[in-house]
Design brief:
about 475 residues, Fumarase C, Chain B, domain 1, two-stranded antiparallel ribbon, (S)-2-(5-amino-1-(5-phospho-D-ribosyl)imidazole-4-carboxamido) succinate lyase (fumarate-forming) activity, lyase, Fumarate_lyase_N, Adenylosuccinate lyase, Pur_lyase
């Protein structure tokens, strides 16, 4: 079957393509190849500036040409690398050969059966780069290229896609918190009526949790290493024993690739930062699962209505239904995302001795884990944008729950030394609703100071919200 959005195996590249497309240039196989080219080019250019007698500093023209290999990297270029990889059976070596081919070098004999790619390169650039060609991938192991590529990919995905999507959700929830800061609402603990809150304060709770999560996600240092086959610069010092390779590698990784240098590694960068980041994203996702379930329940109670759209169908047989599908979709996709994120955070820091390949295939699923997260954020935001607060229903439920004032009444009784206040209110209210008149009659017969009695009689379920409104407004 021809590959299309309808025949894609993953719904992220099929049904949900439009909602996750921003991740494709970053985390796809072609995106991975482009980042590998970037690492190889930056390492190559840095070596030209190293002062080694065998490689002279590149001219501005040659440097710009090398940069253009990254900037103009296309799907066709990725396909060419795959052609080469089909022979080499090694993805990073295929990238190295592609770069050499791009500067006009002839590929090795075993690759001669491939149709040579026509490359239009200025002869002066060709001559300059040909003389330095063996410094492409110089002293590198494949993981020097892969780990830094993954680092740049993860950093871009986090900063350009994941955090903006999460922050858009936070901003929407903050707006709801401010708009409904003073809308009194029954709280429910254990599913039972409890001391009132405000709708805005409940949204502010989620905002505060997500803000903290976003800060932790943003603060994770994205790391990289370029120190050879087992992390000791063995080949580097074999070639140039008097050169400061630690300083050189750190400079490339930090200044040219934008990552934090990890100087203690085996063949692979140990992926601890990926575990930290993915655990942090999973925690944010868990907060959103909590939100989705609460909003779903509030819709069920009638506290929210959902704005309908002409032509939409809620049920194939029940015309009246408007299902909370956005929140259900979000919850389901967050579960898939967290399963992948948590597997990766547990698996990736574990490698047999100096390296095994179990991380390689797992790392190719970063886009899937983050894709389901971003998809879930989009669904939740769309759901929130469809919500309409049903203040009448919220207020009606609150006015029918005078028993929630048993808490303040018994607390004031405690203050003034009345015996057994909790037990008296328990007998009056536990497991049953009471009317306003019944509660007021109970208050009137209490031996309280007149001012305290009057304050309790003025209290209503809607007014008994503490500083909920203040907390919601200041988030």
């Amino acid at each position: 079957m021809e590959l299309s959005a309808l025949s894609a195996l993953s719904p992220l590249d099929g049904r949900y393509l439009r909602k996750t497309g921003a991740l494709r240039p970053i985390l796809s196989e072609a995106g991975f190849m482009r980042h590998r080219v970037k690492v190889e080019v930056e390492w190559f250019k840095a070596l030209s500036r190293s002062g080694f007698a065998e490689i002279r500093p590149f001219s501005e023209t040659a440097s710009h040409f090398l940069d253009s290999l990254v900037e103009n990297f296309s799907v066709d270029d990725a396909a060419r690398i795959k052609e080469i990889e089909a022979v080499t059976n090694h993805d990073v070596k295929a990238v190295e050969y592609w770069i050499k081919e791009s500067i006009g070098l002839q590929l090795p004999p075993e690759l001669s059966r491939l149709n040579p790619r026509k490359v239009d390169v200025d002869r002066a650039i060709t001559e300059e780069l040909h003389s330095a060609a063996e410094f492409i991938h110089f002293a590198c192991t494949s993981e020097d290229i892969n780990n830094t590529s993954h680092g740049m990919m993860i950093k871009s995905a986090r900063d350009e896609v994941v955090l903006p999507a999460l922050n858009a959700l936070i901003e929407k929830l903050r707006n709801i918190a401010h708009e409904h800061a003073s809308l009194s609402m029954l709280a429910r603990t254990h599913g039972q009526t409890a001391s009132p809150t405000t709708l805005g304060k409940e949204m502010a709770n989620i905002v505060a949790r997500l803000q903290r999560s976003a800060k932790i996600i943003e603060a994770v240092e994205i790391m990289g290493k370029m120190n050879g086959a087992v992390g000791n610069y063995n080949a580097h010092f074999a070639a140039y024993p008097d050169f400061d390779w630690e300083k050189f590698s750190r400079n490339v990784v930090e200044k040219h690739l934008g990552l934090t240098y990890n100087e203690y590694t085996i063949q692979i960068e140990p992926h601890d930062y990926i575990a930290e980041l993915f655990d942090a994203i999973a925690r944010a996702n868990t907060v959103l699962i909590d939100l989705n379930r609460d909003i779903w329940s509030y819709i069920s109670l009638g506290y929210f209505k959902q704005i309908t759209k002409v032509g939409e169908v809620g049920s194939s047989t029940m015309p009246h239904k408007v299902n909370p599908i956005d929140f259900e979709n979000s919850e389901g996709n967050l579960g898939i995302a967290n399963a992948l994120l948590r597997h990766m955070s547990e698996k990736l820091p574990v490698s047999r001795w100096q390296r095994d390949l179990t991380d390689s295939t797992v790392l190719r699923n970063i886009g899937i884990a983050l894709g389901y997260s971003v998809l879930a954020y989009d669904s939740c935001l769309r759901g929130l944008n469809k919500l309409e607060v049903n203040a009448g229903k919220i207020t009606h439920d609150l006015e029918d729950a005078w028993e929630v004032l048993a808490e303040p009444v018994q607390t004031v009784m405690r203050r003034y030394g009345i015996e057994n206040p909790y037990e008296q209110l328990k007998a009056l209210t536990r497991g049953k609703g009471i009317e306003k008149e019944d509660l007021h009659e109970f208050i009137r017969q209490l031996g309280l100071p007149q001012a305290a009695r009057e304050e309790l009689l003025k209290m209503t379920p809607a007014s008994y919200t503490g500083i909920a409104s203040k907390l919601a407004k200041k988030i």
